[in-house]
């Protein structure tokens, strides 16, 4: 039985897609780790922001199963600190777009009770649906 490959060798195609969607030249990332060190949400993430960059760069499709893209709050802390001026939040956004285009919704309106809908701020609901649905 052929061994399952960890990496998708169409990786460069995937990298091209994420570069196009994000507008970020991911190949510039030198894996300095500054983004991961400063991210206020890194403890909630299963892989760090710099690992996101690395996985996209080498075409490791496991990145698509990571929760990090959903947890990134686009706070831009990493962006202002990155020595290469890369915006990890745009890469996360591009990954979310790829996932959501597969008709995967991370949030279902029917899961919100009438009581919760009354209590939750409208701006929070609207931004959540923008971020988490296809
Ligand atoms: S701070 Fe910038 S260069 Fe350093 S690992 Fe993060 S994205 Fe790459
Ligand atoms: S933009 Fe995302 S990855 Fe960057 S520091 Fe903020 S939460 Fe972390």
Give an overview of the whole structure.
This protein is an all-alpha fold. The chain folds into 2 domains: 11-102, no CATH class; 106-134, no CATH class. It is built from 8 helices and no strands. The termini are far apart. It is globular and about 50 Å long. One iron/sulfur cluster binds at residues 29-35, 50, 53, 78, 82-84, 86, 88.
SSE topology:
Blueprint (H helix, E strand, L loop, with lengths): L10 H12 L11 H5 L10 H10 L9 H4 L5 H5 L6 H13 L13 H6 L2 H11 L2
The structure holds iron/sulfur cluster (2 copies).
Question: Number of DSSP strands?
Answer: 0
Q: Please, what is the average pLDDT?
A: 88
- End-to-end gap: 37 Å
Give the distinct bound molecules.
Answer: iron/sulfur cluster
Poorly predicted residue ranges:
5-9
Number of helical segments with 4 or more residues: 8
Name its key features.
2 domains; binds iron/sulfur cluster; mainly alpha; about 130 residues
